[in-house]
Amino acid sequence: MTADSRTGRPRASSRETLAEAACELFLERGYEATSIAAIAQRAGVSRSSFFNYFASKADILWSGLDERIVPFEQALSLSESADAAADVRAATAAIAHDFAPDSLALALVNAAAMGLVDELEREASLRRSRIARAVAERLRRGGADRLHADVAGAAYGGAVLAALDAWARDGAGRSDLDRILRVAVAATAEPFPPSSEVRQLRVVVHATEFDQALRFYRDELGLQQQEAYQAEGNARVVILRAGVATLEIANDEQVAMIDRVETDGVASDSIRIAFEVGDSVAVTDRLAAAGAVVEASARETPWRSLNARLRGAAGVQLTVFQELDEH
């Protein structure tokens, strides 16, 4: 797009037009070689008008996040509730709420092409530090010792920036930053994995109707999206978190007994996926409404769980179970 095509009053707001022009130039010339004057010329506004919207060239990329960090810092500095950890979680979640794809998302995906790798890391470290400082100060006021507060602050700062990066790479217009940030924050509380040759159990489901399966397991069952990738030829994969993973190995007699308890003897598949949930009846109803076939309604087992069996998206046989006794 030439400068001439942008002369006159911009079609979009000047702020949006400047950001668009800047990203075009970053891709064409590289970040360092792009001047503020060139951005203003490409956008069809005066150089002085640039500073009505952005304080610097970096501000084009980071202003959207910075506008979220300011109220985040204010909320934590002013809060005096008894639950400092809850305040931190709520303020962090607010950062992602209704966060629209912007220049930062584009830059994160195209960092190498724009010559932005080092610049993004420098600027990201400043935002991580701001978030970490606000969290640590709030936790210390809530009674945490300095070491634990500082570690938690660093973890939250890292979680926010890592979630933004994952969101951008997944296609910021297609994925949900709120969900990704929840996963990132949850990761801050995970213990280190045990020493083992096997680090993770991952079940791979071949889903011809990919989007329908994704909605079923992510949006209806409630699994949290952890990663997503897309390759040439429209190859797509999404990895969903499912809590604690275990591999249950059962002999013929055990399988037959479970089938009698859950379904009055209807044979199960050789591989069946079981999910522990908080309310078996409600989850079963929700999954049925989303297209699952209920093979056996929720019923109480002799070991005090409430089990239901369904045929879910992509033909996967499911058990949803609710533990009725607290451990």
Describe the structure.
This protein has 327 residues and is of the alpha+beta class. The chain folds into four domains: 47 residues, Homeodomain-like (Arc Repressor Mutant, subunit A, Orthogonal Bundle), CATH 1.10.10; 129 residues, Tetracycline Repressor, domain 2; 32 residues, no CATH class; 72 residues, 2,3-Dihydroxybiphenyl 1,2-Dioxygenase, domain 1 (Roll), CATH 3.10.180.10. Helix content is 51%, strand content 13%. The protein contains 13 helices and six strands. A hairpin with a 5-residue loop joins strand 5 and strand 6. The chain is elongated, with a radius of gyration of 25 Å. The chain starts with 13 loop residues before the first helix and ends with a strand. The N terminus is likely disordered.
Number of domains: 4
Low-confidence stretches: 1-12
- How would you sum up the major sheet? 4 strands, mixed
Which fold name is given in CATH as the topology of the largest domain?
Answer: Tetracycline Repressor, domain 2
Please give the share of residues in helix.
Answer: 40-55%
Q: Mean pLDDT, nearest integer?
A: 89
Q: How large a portion of the residues is in β-strands, by DSSP E?
A: 5-15%
Terminal Cα span: 64 Å
